[in-house]
Amino acid sequence: MTMRYEARPIAENFYEIAQGGVRCFLFVGDDFALLIDSGFGGELRPVIEAITQKPVKLLHTHCDRDHIGASDQFEDLYMHPADFACCVKKNNLHLPLQAVWEGDCIEVGGYCLEIILIPGHTPGSIALLDRRHRFLISGDSVQNGTVYMFGEGRDLCAFEASMAKLRDLQEAFDVVYPSHGDLTVAPDTVGRLLTLASEINRGILPDPQPAPDHMPEGVKVYGKNGVQLYLHI
Asked: 6-231: CATH homologous superfamily?
């Protein structure tokens, strides 16, 4: 049974749309609405249309299935092109994707969302930084859940570099909105993920903990200071 989408306002023209353990975001502007990710799939479009009748642009933070599941309900789709191939290879989805690039800014509903490329979780993972309202939308890469870092396309060295990049931008945001876990996490989550990734990359491993039963054999949880990664080492 497909999980329902539930919409809740966060701020003016800014909504959370939650579906089980994943969340999307919606910004409503004068001319169009910007949807960030589309969840596992199911009846998402009616939920959006109950909020706004504006044309919808759908921007994906990355290519994992739980972020593109309802994307075929929309026509105007965007993603960083480093993740185009995985939509086909990992998900067998041939979506009419358009490119967004590092440094692009999307103005919608009084917000200015700057695209920050943060590879590691996937090659084309992005974050969205609003310097005016001082928040970061982080996709899967920054969260207080457990970040998936095993399997094809994951790169822990790139992830470490991306966390260093976000740490250098940390004075520009006061709150992080992730796709999983709590609705908001503190900016210092970035630094804790950076430390964890850096130590693991240098062979300093925290004691592994068992992963849930549905995970592939050999995957363990490696965590420290309130942040965790799923890894196969």
From this structure: Ribonuclease Z/Hydroxyacylglutathione hydrolase-like (3.60.15.10)
